[in-house]
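Action item from last week, closing it out:
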Amino acid sequence: MDSTQLALLALLAGAIIGGAIAVIVALALRSRDRQRADDSAIVPDGVRDVLHGLDDPAVVVDASLTIVAASTAAVPFGMAEGQVLPGDELRTLSRRARATESGSASETLRLQRGAPPAETRLVAVRATRISPRLSLLVLRDITEKERVEQMRRDFVANTSHELKTPVGAVSLLAEAIEMAADDPEQVRNFASRLTGEANRLSLLTSRIMNLSRLQAADDMTVLRDVSVDEVVASALDAHSIQAAQAGVVLQRGGAKGLYVRGDAQVLSEAVGNLVANAIAYSPQGSTVGVGVKSSEGVVEVAVTDRGIGIAEGDQERIFERFYRADQARSRRTGGTGLGLSIVKHAVQRHGGEVRLWSRPGRGSTFTIRLPRTEAPPEDTTRKRGRKKSKPKAAGSAPKKKAVSSATTAAPASPAPTNGETT
């Protein structure tokens, strides 16, 4: 072998050895970088930006369960950067996610949001391994969803139970009418009772639909400046016959010319339900007062009766669907147990609240509080027109003025509207 061949062979051997060394060095460097990445607790680029853009609570924790990145919504749950992941359940879930082959685990937990005595929240938590040392935990608060679902189940169960009574009564009365076909007097008696049960069923169905509509809609669709005077007048007119039959006097007092923003029909039904309840639970010869006043940008409509009152233990549940403080009286008066629930939801949909003052044997006062709005321009113009035209009708002016003053001077309500004792 000559010197040229030896040189080429040496060059080839050197190239092979050099390439092998280069490959070995590259693999070693790659293995080192991979090991560093596996052992690193540094949050990858962009993860923090994603977390801050989430509405749900989310955190990234390292192998020691220390939070290295957190979304803003996670702070109320006690999960801030630099702190240890709170709660044994969350820690166990994070470890399980790193130990499983799929690299993820989920569970529904009850966690406290805020400092005690804040209520616990039902949270769906999903833990995902994003590296051997880092795990991502995303929390989704499902408290309201679960509450709504529970309300739906209760509503269906209660509705089914309440419908059984009138439906069963209608069925039995129909059979009784058939069996008493030869006795006209009995037929008339059963037919009258059948009509009453049918009316009760119709009222129950109507109120269930109203309550479902109030709970299902996202926003009030028909909003305008509503005159409180018209709402109260409509409610009183709708129940004047009921009051006359019960021997109860309806009295309206307080301020006039106030306006709120909302749906006139819904508000009239809400006030009407309070008036109907007050009449039903008032003794014969008593007075049901409807008072209106304005205080600090809030319009208050108070409906007061001198009836049997509500026990303190029942006052917290009185606005629940189908709840009746006096079962026997509700059966006699045909109550559905939905009136006050409809009132509560209707007022809440208008951004207001309902307050209750009651003492057993002394009566009750339900107060609807709604945000006040200014009177529309056309109403102001109409009032100016009436003031200018008064001097023309000199003969009748004194009489009209006396009637107006007497109505305005009437008491807003016999009982307090702010929880004070009479």
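Closing note: Confidence is low (pLDDT under 50) at residues 327-334, 387-422.
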